[in-house]
Structures are given as structure tokens and as C-alpha cells.
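User: Okay, second chain of the day. Same drill as before: sequence in, C-alpha cells out.
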Amino acid sequence: MNKIRLIIQREYLTRVKKKSFIIMSILGPVLIAAMIILPALLSEWSEGTKKRIAVLDETGLFTGKFKNQDNLEFYSVYNDLNSEKEAALYQRGDLLLYIPLTQLSLPTKAQLFSTKQPGLNVTVYIKSVMKNVIENEKLKAKGIDPEVIKSAKAEIDLATIRVDESGKEKKSYTEVEVGLSIFAGIMIYFFIFMFGAQVLKGVMEEKQNRIVEVIISSVKPFQLMMGKIVGIALVGLTQFMLWILLTGFFLILFQTGAGSDFQESISTLTEQNQMMNQGAPDMTTIDSNKLAMISEIINSIDLKTMVFSFIFYFLGGYLLYASLFAAIGGAVDHDADTQQFMLPVSIPLIFSVMMSGAIVNQPDSSMAFWLSMIPFTSPVTMMMRIPFGVPYWEIGLSATILILGFIGTTWLAGKIYRTGILMYGQKVNYAVMWKWLKQKN
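Assistant: Same drill. C-alpha cells below.
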């Protein structure tokens, strides 16, 4: 046991001191924070660029229908198409919306002239306005008041209430659960492959450099394999925790740096609120409603179970697959030879990701249940199911089977590793591995 501890210590310290570990521990959170911050910044910058659109409406139906938006400004023009196109595009640098006159039908076609890509928000807004106007004209032609149709429309607020076995009711938010489900499954898949590949690469490097021959003289092959697997697992947990902490730090740092802008926005909203009429909606009430909804969403998620399960299934899935990767790395001599063994081992994990759509749509189906019990697919599948609410006995059963699966794969991998780690120059295939498995200790 002491030898395994020394190997774990060596693997851990060697890897955390590498420049690549330090760089990725900093670069990873920066990229994650950038993915969260940049869309908001780019959205603000894009909103600051106002586009002016000249409207040449030969039908007259859309006069005054296009209202100015935050970053869109409409104005009417009345000359012929060629002259207005020349003036709008090349003299003023604007866009030109041309709606031609039709003789026998309502105008359902239009042309938008621009020297650059107009943007999705421009085309979507124009099409929605034209659609509403044309539909209203059709209703009037049938003798139907469009206001009657509008008044008949209703917004449906469907609340999902989950009732557990004890009869306790709890509100759930499907959209949030789907997002958490996919995120957790993809992260488990990513970490298992990333750190599992490090085990394979580390074993192959020691074998190719003949360092393993010196190490084997002092420790047993199984001890070396277990020490390497557990050591890299601790490296993975360390990097994962650093990513969480540093990402939070960068986000807080950004919010602190942009604090003056936030305060200015809040003061502006306060002034606007004071100038509102008594019949206008109270901004304080709106903000409190939003905060209440956010709090309700957070309370609907079993965060303790999510965090504990994520750590467990990351470790369990990693240990299971890392043992197999270690066996492959110990059996082959060259990187090219790993491909024939990596694909069959990786198929269950890849399959569980491919089935994410079906799992998210029906998390309680028989297929989702069995995929969350099979140890090769349970790390990804169970993490996708947990946000939707899974009975604790299913999580316990899945965890137990995963532990047994890890013990079984470690035993099989140990037999292959023990023989293959000292084999050089032999072409390894499945038949050779099967012979190693059948060898008695």
C-alpha cells in the first residue's frame, strides 16, 4: 500500500508541476469565462451599431408599419427603384427595402438591398411586420375584425409539478433541467476521455523509454497501474476544482470592473421609474418577481445530489475506462497500434452521448434506465437523468454496479498490463490478449 501511495505521489507531483498543467489550469477558466462574457459584450456592441433602412413601398399598405427599434431606423422614400437604390446604398450607406406593387393579390414578396449582410434581426423583423399586415388585410377581406382575433389569443403558463413517492410536490423547470442534463453529460464524457488518454500516454511513454523495467524491479505491475490511475485522477480533480474557482474569480473580476456601468444602468432605471405614471408597472415589483423566479429555479434543482453524483461518476467512470486505457498502453508499443483497441473500448461511452436526445426526451424510459445501470454507459447517462429527478435507490444501484464494474475491469486490465508492460516487438491482437487473460497467476 505504501508503494502505491508513493507512485500516486510521484504521478501527481510530476504532472501538476508541468507547464502544460499550469497553462491549461489558467487558460481553461479564461476560455470558459470568455464564452460567458463575450456574447454579452458582443451583443452590446452590435446594439450600438444602428442601421438605417429606406422603405420604398409602392403598395402603400406598409406606410408607418415599420417602427424604429433599438438598432433599426426606418424612413420612407418615394422615387423610382434605381435612383433610390443609388441614393440609399452608395450615398447614405443605408439599406433599401423595396415592396413592389401587385395587381391582383396582396404583396407577399419584397427585396432588401444592402452592400453588406443585413443581419438576421433585420430580416426577421421585416418579415414579421409584413406577415402581420398581410394577415390583417386578408381578415378584413373576409369581414373579420383583426382585433377580435388578437383578443382571442392567449398565453398559456404551464407549470410542471413533480410529485415524489411521499406525495411531496415540487415545481420543476424543464428547460433548465435539459440544459443541466446535457452540460453534465458532456462534461463527464470530456473529462473521462481527457484524463483517460493521459493514462494511456503515460504508460506508453514509460514502456517506450524502458523506464518501466527499472520501476517493475521495485513494485508489482498492478501496483504501478493503480498508482498511475489514481494519481492522474487526483490531477483531474485538482484541475477541475481550479477551473471552477478561477472561472468564478474571472467572472467576479469582470463584474467588479464593469460595476460602474451597472450602477449607472440601475440609477437610470430608478429615474425612469420615478417619472412613470401611476398606472405604469412598478420596476421594483418586476425585479422582485425575477429574483423570486431565479430563487425558485435554484431551489427546484437538487444541487447536493448533482455535485456529489458528478464527482462520483467522474471518478467511477474515469477509473473504469482508465484501467482499460492503461491495459492498452501497456500492451502496445506504438501509438498507431492503439487505434484498433481504443474504438471498441470507447464505443459505449460514445453511444451514451449519441443517445442524449432520447434520454433527455424520456429520462424515465426503459432504455434510459438500463443505460444508467450498465457501468460502461452509466457515468454519462445517469448524469443526464439526475437533473430530472431520479429515485435514490436507482442512483445507489447504478453506483454499486459501477464500482463492481471498475473492480472487474481493473482485474482484467491488470492481467493484460502485467504481461504486456514487459513485451517488446510482438504484434499484439485480440487473440494475444485473450491468451494473457487466460494465464494463471
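The longest strand covers residues 51-57.

User: Thanks, on to the next one.
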